[in-house]
Design a protein that fits this description.
single chain; alpha+beta; Beta Polymerase, domain 2; Ubiquitin-like (UB roll); 5 domains; 6-stranded mixed sheet; 4-stranded mixed sheet; guanosine-3',5'-bis(diphosphate) 3'-diphosphatase activity; HD_domain
Length: 737
């Protein structure tokens, strides 16, 4: 455990005595607040804020950041308040601590919703003060370093969130060291067997290649020396996650990956960067398509460097990065390297910084369109976890887009109006389909038509969150207009049967009274609800017709079964709603989506389909982000007799005798029925077992997964949708008409 004196030794190099005193004061406060608390590792809880503060000190951040690192859990886990911290340490430290603190006072429907809202809160706070996310990254890094003390299921959840959100966020901020460590630690817990194999292979190759590394460094050093260029040459081992990605993309084994070591040449000036590049290419043949110039076109996180892959000594491919010393400092430390807090007011961005972090401004733009925090986080993952391509407009302006982006993405980047009226595109002077992925250096001209509008098919290929958000917003608006028209038509038809004049009811305010009874904002919302089949025309008409004496008004919005199938949703074969309760709704058909197979205990969300009832998905189902948010409703599991629910298990095991028997024995012990299964043997001595099983609830499923994972011959176990190669009947749950 790091001690406060070690932190003060680190900060003494760049902070004043008065600033050091703030850190000491924060330490004393944190020690008192966390007194008696213990981590899962058995260490005093104070060890965690100390380690987080140590990471921030290594980044040479200011006193407010380091103090916030020491205090970041006090509001969340002790009786301390933000007001108390503001009084003792000032509003600057208090704002950072508040930005990092999870929201605990607001009730949420599920843990997933709460987690999504906390991430959203952090990102919004980061837009005002970048130090919020730097403290959070330090907090997450130490938590990942001690993740082995968590339960297996929680380890996997935390590691996945780190890989999806925090590692890409560190990358966007240019924090290379933190990004690579977060990726490797997440990799270790998400794919432990693969991680161990690659680590062993890399260690073996690194030992064998030491002489080769020295040889390459020597040749480069001699070459630059002969040309009077002062340079520092480094040979560094690539981190394990990047090696795994290369193996996966190119279909290689560890023995076939030759460039496990990258060489870095650090010089003084940009002119010398290009000079060294020319010298390298003069002695070693460059590999076509493997040169990247990030000096003239920096990445979004400020990264600048020349990258080239050449055929080096003995015909081996080697990667060489060439940059200045200052570029290397920015590459390693990112936003922390240029963030001088004394020159800014409370860590806010100045105009130059805004240009450097256009991706953050774009996130702020599209998040305003989203009310659902889970949709915000889905889009955030989508936006962060991508490499960039750079394209040109016909006027020569450079636009940065995620890899695989299309002309539609570019149109929305240029302006929302251009995106909404995009009719076609020319790439390098040639007409191309709108779904064509753009490449580095393409010149793209957007063709617009004032009569053209976005359509749902665009959602299948756009890559930017802004484009997806704007397209969904347009579709929702259009569908609301259609639902209102349809609802009006359905009400007028039913009104003619029952002798009720709907137009008159709207004009004289009677329909507004119905809206209030149904807890809806206005008349159009009533019409829309009818059009979407959320309520039936008869329910509305019954509130417009004078009630008989003694008859009570039902003031709750209920989804009643209509008189005929044409009017809405019906039940089938006495189904009881699949054990799912919908708030304030009775007597409606409920189906479990076969794309994710929710079981009792899973966090779930309902989707009102057209004519097929409410389809229930898990919160993390990959299809949920593509659904219309207006049709999503809150649903919960309700108690009922135990019954089997289908679920899928994907097991990677060693191809040895008796493995299937041991797995079957665990399933029998846990009372899990095997409905069907397939086994596929791999060339690497492993087998892939896919089972369709029946379980009582999510607890039953995850207990079984945990027991199977403990078998010596089993390398990995995960839950899988039963439609994924498990032989279930095809289902159209992904097409919610």
């Amino acid at each position: 455990m790091i001690r406060i004196n070690e932190i003060l030794d680190k900060t003494a190099v760049y902070l004043t005595e008065a600033e050091q005193a703030i850190i000491t004061k924060a330490y004393v406060f944190s020690a008192a607040a966390h007194a008696g608390q213990v981590r899962l590792s058995g260490e005093p809880y104070l060890s965690h804020p100390l380690e987080a503060a140590g990471i921030l000190a290594d980044m040479r951040l200011d006193a407010a950041s380091v103090a916030a690192g020491l205090l970041h859990d006090t509001v969340e886990d002790t009786k301390a308040t933000v007001d108390e911290i503001e009084e003792l340490f000032g509003d600057e430290v208090a704002d950072i601590v508040d930005g990092v603190t999870k929201i605990s006072l607001i009730p949420f429907e599920s843990k997933e919703e709460a987690q999504a809202e906390n991430i959203r809160k952090m990102i919004l706070a980061m837009a005002n003060d970048i130090r919020v996310v730097l403290v959070k990254l330090a907090d997450r890094l130490h938590n990942m370093r001690t993740l082995e003390f968590q339960k297996p299921v929680k380890r996997a959840l935390i590691a996945q969130e780190t890989m999806d959100i925090y590692a890409p966020l560190a990358n966007r901020l240019g924090l290379h060291r933190i990004k690579t460590e977060l990726e490797d630690l997440s990799f270790k817990y998400l794919k432990p067997d693969v991680y161990s194999q690659i680590k062993a292979g890399v260690d073996r190759h690194h030992t064998l290649d030491e002489s080769y590394i020295e040889r390459v460094i020597g040749q480069i050093r001699q070459m630059v020396g002969e040309n009077n260029i002062r340079a520092r040459i480094i040979g560094r081992r690539k981190h394990l996650w990047s090696v795994f990605n290369k193996m996966r993309v190119q279909g290689l084994t560890i023995d076939q990956v030759h460039d496990l070591v990258a060489f870095r040449v650090l010089v003084e000036t940009i002119r010398e960067c290009y000079a060294v590049l020319g010298l390298v290419h003069s002695i070693w043949k460059p590999v076509p398509g493997r040169f990247k110039d990030y000096i003239s076109m920096p990445k979004a996180n400020m990264y600048q460097s020349l990258h080239t892959t050449v055929v080096g000594p003995d015909g081996e491919r080697i990667e060489i990065q060439i940059r200045t010393v200052e570029m290397n400092r920015l590459a390693e430390e990112g936003v922390a390297a240029h963030w001088k807090y004394k020159e800014r007011e409370k860590g806010k961005f100045n105009p130059k910084d805004v240009e450097r972090f256009t991706w953050l401004r774009q996130i702020m733009d599209w998040q305003r369109e989203l009310k659902d925090s889970r949709e915000f986080v889905a889009n955030l993952r989508f936006d962060l976890f991508q490499d960039e391509v750079y394209v040109f407009t016909p006027k020569g302006e450079v636009k940065e887009l995620p890899e695989g982006a299309t002309a539609v993405d570019l149109a929305f980047v240029i302006h929302t109006a251009v995106g909404e009226h995009c009719a076609g595109a020319k790439v390098n002077g040639r007409l191309v389909p709108l779904e064509t992925p753009l490449k580095n250096g393409d010149t793209v001209e957007i063709i617009t038509d004032k009569n053209r509008r976005p359509n749902r098919d665009w959602l299948k290929f756009v890559k930017t969150a802004k484009a997806r958000t704007r397209i969904k917003h347009f579709i929702r608006t259009e569908e609301r207009v259609r639902s209102i028209a349809l609802g009006r038509e359905m009400l007028e038809k039913q009104g003619r049967k029952d002798g009720v004049n709907i137009q008159k009811a709207i004009k004289d305010g009677a329909m507004l009274g119905v809206a209030r009874e149904l807890s809806l904002p206005g008349v159009e919302d009533v019409l829309s609800a009818v059009g979407y089949s959320r309520i039936t025309p008869k329910k509305v008409i019954s509130r417009l017709v004078p009630k008989k004496e003694g008859e009570e008004a039902d003031v709750h919005l209920k989804m009643e079964a209509p008189a005929s199938p044409a009017e809405g949703l019906t039940h089938t074969k006495g189904k009881t709603g699949e054990g799912v309760r919908i708030q304030g709704v009775d007597n409606v058909l409920v189906r479990l989506a076969q794309c994710c197979n929710p079981v009792p205990g899973d966090p779930i969300v309902g989707y009102i389909s057209r004519g097929r009832g409410v389809v229930v998905h898990t919160h993390d189902c990959p299809n949920v982000p593509n659904l219309e948010s207006e049709r999503l409703i809150q649903v919960n599991w309700e108690g009922e007799k135990e019954r089997p629910y289908p679920a899928g298990l994907a097991i990677l095991a060693k191809n040895q005798k008796g493995v299937l028997g041991k797995i079957s024995h665990v399933l029998v012990e846990e009372g899990v029925n095997i409905d069907s299964g397939t086994i596929h043997s791999n060339i690497d001595g492993t087998s892939q077992l896919l089972f369709r099983v029946e379980v009582r609830d999510s607890g039953h499923l995850y207990r079984t997964i945990d027991k199977i994972s403990r078998l010596d011959q089993v390398l990995a176990v995960k839950r899988q949708a039963v439609t994924d190669e498990l032989g279930s009947d095809p289902d159209d749950d992904n097409r919610h008409d």
